[in-house]
Specification:
mainly beta, about 40% strand, about 80 residues
Length: about 80
């Protein structure tokens, strides 16, 4: 599964932080809506097209928060260069 987007509402702390992830696996698109940071609670949505997934993301971004796009994690995670 490849992460394509990571959006964050710019707020710190378990009660205020919200994240939205867009991931793709073959021809299936997955949206994760997470409240409360890494230890928080997630809701998952699955779609057959990128357009459907993006439509859900637009709806989730609606509201007073100032959303920021973070760099997605590359396939295989972050690696340190060899020395």
């Amino acid at each position: 599964m490849e992460q394509r987007k990571h959006l964050w509402n710019g707020k710190w702390g378990r009660l205020a932080r919200r994240d939205i992830f867009l991931r793709v696996d073959a021809d299936r698109w997955h949206v994760e809506q997470r409240a409360g940071g890494a230890e928080g609670i997630s809701k998952f949505y699955e779609y057959g097209s990128a357009d459907e997934a993006e439509e859900t993301i637009r709806a989730l971004l609606d509201g007073p928060d100032t959303w920021r796009e973070l760099s997605p994690r590359p396939p295989g995670g972050w690696a340190l260069p060899n020395s």
